[in-house]
Specification:
The complex is a heterodimer of chains A (200) and B (436).
Chain A (H helix, E strand, L loop, with lengths): L1 H90 L2 E2 L9 H16 L4 E7 L6 H21 L7 E7 L10 H7 L1 E8 L2
Parallel strand pairs in A: 2-3
Antiparallel strand pairs in A: 1-4, 2-4
Chain B lengths: L2 H14 L7 H5 L13 E4 L4 E2 L7 H17 L3 E4 L15 H6 L4 E10 L4 E10 L4 E11 L3 H17 L8 E6 L6 E6 L6 E2 L7 E6 L5 E6 L6 E6 L6 E3 L5 E6 L6 E5 L6 E5 L5 E6 L5 E6 L5 E6 L6 E6 L4 E4 L7 E6 L6 E7 L3 E7 L7 E2 L7 E6 L5 E6 L6 E6 L6 E2 L8 E6 L2
The chains are: A alpha+beta (200), B mainly beta (436).
C-alpha cells in the first residue's frame, strides 16, 4: 500500500510536474504573441513616421527645387535683363541734326539710361564713336565726328561717369551705318555709337 | 550768283561790243563757257614730224610723237590743236610760209624733225614753236636721248611752251595723290598729271585719307586709322625716314608749310579740333588757330605767310584766312551755310573751295582771298568737292559724283573743259592733291 501511494505520489508529482510544465509552456506562448503584436504596432508607427518624414522630405525637396528653379529663373531673368540692358547700351545710338553736335532732348534721355547702365557696370570702359552723313567734305566731317563724340562724352561725364572710362574716336563719314543718300539715310548716319572696350 | 546772267553778259559783250577790250575780271567770268569751251583757245598747228637728213626714222615714234604733243597741248586747255593731215617741208623758220598758215587760221605752228641713229639707238629731236602772226620763233630746242624717251622730250618741250607763253611751270612733271576705295578700303594712290601711271602707296586695309605733298614733293603726309585712332603718317617717296604724328583722340588733315619741313595739322587736344604748326616728329611749334568750334582743313598761300582754313566759329562752316605776319584772322566767305575744303592757288590770286547751297547743291567755287569775286565753277552736275590746284595754277582737280560714284575731274581755273581724269578705276576716288 505504502508503495501504491508512493507510486501514486510519483504519478501525481509527475502529473503535477507535467501539468506545471504544460502550463508553463502555454503561458510562454501567450506572452510571445503579445510581444509580437506590440512590435508590429511599433513598426507600423515607425513606418508611418518614416512615410511622413519621407513625404515631408519630399515636400521640402520639392519646395527647395521650386525655390531653386525660382532663383534660377530670377537669375535668368536678371541675366536677360542685363543682356537686354547691354544690348540696349551697345545698340541704341544717339542721333544728330545736320552739321550739329548738339545733344537733343531725345539723346538726353538715351544718355541718362546709358549712364545708369555705366553706374551698374562700374568696371566697364567704353569708346564713343562719332559719325557723320556723306554730305560735306571728308575733312570737315572728321572734325564734326570728333565734336559729336566729345559732346556725348561731356554729357555722360556731367551725369557722373568718370571721364577716364570714356574714350572717343571720330570716323567722320568713313563708316556709314546705312549706304545711299536721301534724308532718311543721312539721318541714320549722323550718330554716336557706343562700343564696350573692357570690364564686362 | 546767276550763271545765266553771266552768260548773257558775255554774249552781250562779245557780240554787241566787238571793240570792247575784255577786262581781266570779265575774262575771268568765262566759267560758264561749258556750252562753248573752245572760245579764246589759241589755234596751233602741229604738222607731221619729218625725218632729218637721210636717216630713216621709226614711223611709229614719229606718229606717236605728233599725237602725244597734240595731247599735251590739248590737256592744258590753252590751245585748239590741229595735228592731222598737216604737212611741212622744212622745220626751219626761214623756209616756212607763215602767210599760208595764217590763212588756214593758225596763230601758232610747231615744227619738229627726228634723227634716229641706228648704231647707237639714240634719237635726236629738233623742235620749234613759231608765232605765226609775228612770223618769229618763240622757242626752239634740240633733245638727244634714247629712242624710248621721246615722250619725255615732248613733255619737256611742252613745258618750255607753257613757260615761254604763260609763265606756267611744272604741270607736265606733276603728279596727283588721291584716295581710292577700289580694293574695298580707302588707300592712298599717286598718278601722273593726266591720270595715267597709277601707283598705290598704302596697303594696310584700314582707312587712309587726306594726302598732302611736301614742298619738294619728296614726302606725302596722310591720315590713317591703321593703329585704330586717326593719326598722321609721313611717308618718304624717296626711301628716307618715315614719321608718325599722334596726339590723343585725333591727328588729321596735314598740310605742309611752303618751303619748310613742317606741317599744319589738326589735333583735338582739349576736345575741340584746332590747328597747330608741327614738326614731322609731332612737336608743336605754334598754335595756329584755336577757337570755339571746329577749326580744320588748313592750306597755305604760296609764300606761306597766310593760311586758309575752315572754321565753325560763326555757327556754320566758313572759310577764314589767318595772316601770320600780323596774327589776324579774317572771314572770307559769307554766302551759304556750308563752305569747306579750301585750296590756295599757287599763283596766290584765288582760293578754291567747296560750297553747299539749297539751290545748287554742292559745288566748287573760287574767291579772292579778300572775299571778292566769288564764282561758281561747277553747276548742275552732281556733288562737286575737294578742289586742288595744278602747280602752274591753270587747272583744278576735284571730286564729282556726276557720273556713277565719286570720281576725279579736271577743269580750268575758270571752270572750262570739265572732264574725268581717271576713267578706268573701280570704286570711288576722292581728296585729290596736286603735287607742287
Amino acid at each position: 500500500m505504502k508503495r501504491y501511494f508512493s507510486r501514486l505520489f510519483i504519478i501525481a508529482l509527475i502529473c503535477i510536474l507535467g501539468l506545471s510544465f504544460g502550463c508553463s509552456s502555454k503561458k510562454t506562448d501567450l506572452n510571445e504573441g503579445v510581444t509580437q503584436e506590440q512590435v508590429s504596432e511599433q513598426e507600423r508607427l515607425k513606418a508611418e513616421q518614416a512615410e511622413k518624414e519621407k513625404k515631408a522630405e519630399e515636400e521640402r525637396l520639392k519646395a527647395e527645387e521650386l525655390e531653386r528653379q525660382k532663383k534660377l529663373e530670377q537669375q535668368k531673368r536678371e541675366e536677360e535683363r542685363k543682356k537686354e540692358a547691354l544690348r540696349k547700351f551697345s545698340d541704341v545710338n544717339v542721333y544728330f541734326t545736320f552739321d550739329s553736335s548738339e545733344i537733343s532732348e531725345e539723346a538726353r534721355m538715351i544718355l541718362e539710361e546709358k549712364s545708369q547702365w555705366l553706374m551698374e557696370n562700374n568696371n566697364v570702359k567704353i569708346t564713343v564713336e562719332g559719325h557723320c552723313d556723306s554730305r560735306g567734305t571728308t575733312q570737315y566731317n572728321l572734325a564734326l565726328g570728333e565734336r559729336r563724340a566729345e559732346s556725348v562724352k561731356t554729357y555722360l561725364v556731367a551725369l557722373g561717369i568718370d571721364s577716364a572710362r570714356i574714350s572717343t574716336i571720330s570716323y567722320g563719314e568713313e563708316r556709314p551705318a546705312v549706304e545711299g543718300s536721301g534724308e532718311d539715310v543721312w539721318a541714320k548716319n549722323r550718330r554716336a555709337e557706343f562700343v564696350i572696350d573692357s570690364g564686362l | 550768283m546767276k550763271p545765266m546772267n553771266v552768260l548773257f553778259y558775255i554774249l552781250f559783250f562779245t557780240f554787241n561790243m566787238p571793240f570792247f577790250c575784255l577786262s581781266d575780271d570779265l575774262q575771268n567770268l568765262k566759267f560758264i563757257d561749258v556750252n562753248n569751251p573752245f572760245i579764246n583757245k589759241i589755234p596751233v598747228a602741229v604738222p607731221e614730224f619729218i625725218p632729218l637728213g637721210n636717216n630713216e626714222i621709226i614711223s611709229e615714234i614719229s606718229q606717236d610723237s605728233n599725237d602725244y604733243l597734240g595731247y599735251l597741248l590739248d590737256f592744258t586747255s590753252y590751245f585748239r590743236v590741229s595735228n592731222s593731215n598737216l604737212n611741212i617741208d622744212n622745220i626751219v623758220g626761214t623756209k616756212i610760209d607763215f602767210q599760208e598758215w595764217k590763212r588756214k587760221g593758225f596763230e601758232l605752228l610747231i615744227t619738229a624733225g627726228l634723227f634716229y641713229d641706228k648704231d647707237t639707238g639714240f634719237l635726236e629731236m629738233e623742235i620749234r614753236l613759231f608765232d605765226v602772226l609775228k612770223e618769229e620763233l618763240t622757242v626752239g630746242k634740240r633733245y638727244t636721248g634714247k629712242a624710248d624717251d621721246y615722250r619725255k622730250m615732248l613733255k619737256k618741250f611742252a613745258s618750255e611752251i607753257m613757260e615761254k607763253m604763260f609763265e606756267n611751270t611744272g604741270l607736265f612733271e606733276s603728279e596727283i595723290a588721291f584716295v581710292s576705295d577700289e580694293t574695298g578700303q580707302k588707300e592712298i594712290y599717286i598718278c601722273d598729271f593726266d591720270g595715267t601711271n597709277i601707283k598705290k602707296i598704302t596697303n594696310d586695309k584700314s582707312i587712309n585719307i587726306s594726302p598732302a605733298w611736301s614742298s619738294d614733293n619728296d614726302y606725302i603726309a596722310y591720315t590713317s586709322y591703321k593703329r585704330k585712332l586717326p593719326e598722321i603718317f609721313i611717308q618718304s617717296l624717296k626711301g628716307k625716314k618715315n614719321y608718325i604724328v599722334s596726339k590723343k583722340r585725333l591727328s588729321i588733315t596735314p598740310k605742309w608749310v611752303p618751303g619748310k619741313f613742317s606741317l599744319a595739322a589738326v589735333f583735338s587736344i582739349d576736345g575741340d579740333p584746332d590747328i597747330y604748326i608741327i614738326s614731322p616728329t609731332g612737336e608743336i611749334i605754334e598754335t595756329a588757330v584755336k577757337g570755339y568750334g571746329i577749326d580744320v582743313s588748313p592750306a597755305f598761300s604760296p609764300d606761306g605767310n597766310k593760311m586758309v582754313f575752315v572754321s565753325g566759329r560763326g555757327g556754320s562752316p566758313q572759310i577764314y584766312v589767318k595772316d601770320f605776319t600780323d596774327n589776324t584772322i579774317r572771314r572770307v566767305t559769307f554766302e551759304g551755310n556750308y563752305n569747306t575744303s579750301p585750296s590756295w592757288s599757287p599763283r596766290g590770286d584765288y582760293i578754291a573751295y567747296t560750297g553747299m547751297t539749297k539751290e545748287y547743291g554742292i559745288n566748287i567755287y573760287t574767291i579772292k582771298p579778300d572775299g571778292s569775286s566769288q564764282r561758281m565753277l561747277t553747276y548742275s552736275s552732281g556733288d562737286n568737292e575737294e578742289p586742288s590746284w595744278s602747280p602752274d595754277g591753270s587747272l583744278i582737280v576735284f571730286t564729282s559724283s556726276r557720273n556713277n560714284g565719286k570720281k576725279l575731274f579736271l577743269m580750268t581755273r575758270s571752270g572750262e573743259d570739265q572732264r574725268q581724269l581717271i576713267v578706268n578705276m573701280a570704286g570711288n576716288q576722292s581728296e585729290p592733291a596736286w603735287s607742287h
